[in-house]
Design a protein that fits this description.
The protein is mostly helical and 128 residues long. Helix content is 69%, strand content 6%. The chain contains four helices and four strands. The two termini are 21 Å apart. The relative contact order is 0.17.
């Protein structure tokens, strides 16, 4: 339940923002994609920190697993790529708001993709 609250929180914020902007009469749909993309990026940043395991009998030393050491550079590549995708979703939401990808507004498709991939990478990191 805790994971659902944490990883679903950006969606809750989107809902509250949508409600607030609807009440005051401002259309905020164009920023849904960039918002989801930003949320996905914030999930990735803590993942680049190596998991540290203490070794009993060797106080003052910590180690990380090979899998974690292999995953971290890959995560940095995702962070870099997702920064560009976030920028792209911002551009598309402002300059091409009616452009669609797979039947969705393109900014929403980009943001949702980043969000979903970030959740998958978070689950992978937890297993490593």
């Amino acid at each position: 339940m805790y994971a659902v609250l944490i990883y679903g929180f950006p969606l809750t914020l989107l809902g509250f923002e949508w409600g607030l902007r609807t009440m005051i009469g401002v259309d905020s749909f164009g920023f849904t994609g960039p918002t989801l993309a930003a949320a996905g990026l914030t999930f990735l940043m803590p993942l680049v920190k190596p998991k540290q395991k203490k070794i009993s009998g060797h106080e003052g030393y910590v180690v990380t697993t090979k899998a974690d050491a292999t995953l971290i550079p890959l995560l940095w590549l995702f962070v870099l790529a997702f920064l560009f995708f976030w920028s792209w979703s911002c551009y598309v939401s402002v300059k091409l708001p009616d452009h669609t990808t797979l039947g969705l507004p393109s900014h929403l498709a980009i943001g949702s993709g980043i969000y979903i991939v970030s959740l998958i990478l978070t689950a992978v990191k937890e297993k490593v």
